[in-house]
Amino acid sequence: MGEQLLSVGIDIGTSTTQLILSRLTLENRAAPFTVPRVAISDREVLYRSDIHFTPLLSDTVIDAAGVRDIVAEEYRKSGFSPHQVDTGAVIITGETARKENAREVLSALSEFAGDFVVATAGPDLESILAARGAGADEYSREHHTTVLHFDIGGGTANLAKYAHGELTATGCLDVGGRLIKLDGGGRVTYVSPVFARAGCPAPQVGEAVTPEGLRPVIQTMVEALEQAAGLRPGRDRLDAFLTQGTSWTPEPVPSVSFSGGVADCIDKPPEDWLAFGDIGVLLGRAIAASPAFHQAGRFRGGETIRATVVGAGSHATDLSGSTIFYRDIPFPLKSIPILKLTAQEETGSAEELSAAIRDKLGWYADQGGLVQLALALRGEQNPSYARIQELARGIVDGLEPLRRAGFVPIVAVEADQAKVLGQAMAALVSGPLLCLDGVGMDNGDYIDIGTPVAGGSVLPIVIKTLAFHKS
After folding, report:
1. Where are the alpha helices (DSSP H) in 268-399?
2. Is 212 exposed, middle or buried (0-12, 13-18, 19+ CB in 10 A)?
């Protein structure tokens, strides 16, 4: 097929802001005379921006205008226009997502987002994008092993575990290089509240420190990482630094990998421990010296500090399957929350299915009433014609309150049956309707759906989280 999409990734992290532009190539991998199955066959990075320090107005406020100027200048240098962009992701990561004006920053970038660039944040997505950007998923698949990937930036360490190429767990720790900031003379200018919450003694603002004096706090963070990898007994350090609202079950892993700004300080740390005005160099050195991490195999990815932005630009987008059904849809659709039924609820009669859907529609209602959402189903294996008709009746009736409120019925099925289900629903209801397949999602996820490509047979999608963290 050879159709191509231009994808952008913009990562606004605790320490750095970066932009990357990639070309995604689509290919029909189905055999002749069979249903088309379009996939992304190639990802080529076209432009990598300089690495900029994220501009801040204070410890709690991002300089939105400064970030906007960085992105505008990098677009100019790349030679591409925002209007040429088809897909991608803008992500605010780590401690930056906790800044009080994180949403304002995303708004300031809206003119650079094209018609289908998502604005996302959330530790799960960050973990996945960084691991894929570094190549940990491919290494795990090719070597038939388990890899725990750590993406350690300025404010957080995002964890993603891949077993034989399959994602099995994500997590996040409040461990990073800019949790303590220093001036050129080694005097503390900022200390993150993370340490007080973790019960970890840390220096005070204004205090003059040395590498030896910082050793206890650095070692405590390294031990939290070791426990996360199952390489140190217990989980006291892990629990102390576990990001609020996240969870992690430590298990011994045969291989680890690292990305993020701190990863650059693991293999080749600067001689000057104050090179970046924070504890990143010392943290990298301590990880490199860790006997526990020496026990595990080490995969060194092709990307370190750029892993997340490469993941955002090249791996955030997926494609919905080849049997989609849509009618009168105003593409693109952005930030649609997901409502997923239980497996038992899906197997019910039309009446039971309708009741389950109507009961759960209120989960996403706000003060103004119901909101646009997408119903996610696992789908049944080889359902009969009669069962498809029954499912269609139950879904249409269950989503009727949503349709009466002026919203579009959207159904996302993991199994390849969206076209037949959509056609059955279309016979029962008039107006806009969308069924897509090959998409696995869960409650709490959001989805962006782009304008159809490949002759209208494929929908580019991004599954994301929109969790802006609070300290």
Report:
1. 280-288, 291-295, 307-314, 343-346, 350-361, 385-398
2. exposed
Whole-number Å distance between alpha carbons of 199 and 93: 24
Distance linking the first and last C-alpha atoms of the chain: 48
Task: Judge whether residue 152 has pLDDT over 70.
Answer: yes
Q: What is the DSSP letter of 60?
A: T
Helix 280-288 to helix 211-228 angle (10° resolution) is: 60
Dist CA 471 CA 462 (whole Å): 27
**CA angle (269 as vertex; 263, 273 as ends), nearest 5:** 115
CA–CA distance from 239 to each of 49, 171, 227 (Å)? 36, 12, 9
CA distance 325 to 328: 11
Q: Pick from 90, 87, 58: which is nearest to 74 by CA?
A: 90
Distance, in Å, from the CA atom of 173 to the CA atom of 200, rounded to the nearest integer, reads 14
What is the pTM assigned to this prediction?
0.85
Give the integer Cα–Cα distance in Å for 417 and 320: 12
199 burial class (0-12, 13-18, 19+ CB within 10 angstroms)?
exposed
pLDDT at residue 470, rounded to an integer? 47
Model confidence at 459: pLDDT above 80: yes
Alpha-carbon span 113 to 90, nearest angstrom: 8
How far apart CA 92 and CA 89 sit, in angstroms, is: 10
Q: Give dist(CA 215, CA 36) in Å, integer.
A: 58
Q: Which amino acid is at 196?
A: A
CA proximity to 202, closest of 219, 186, 214, 189 = 214
Report the candidate in 285, 291, 231, 237 with the shortest Cα–Cα distance to residue 262. 285
Q: Which amino acid is at 171?
A: G
d(CA 81, CA 83): 5
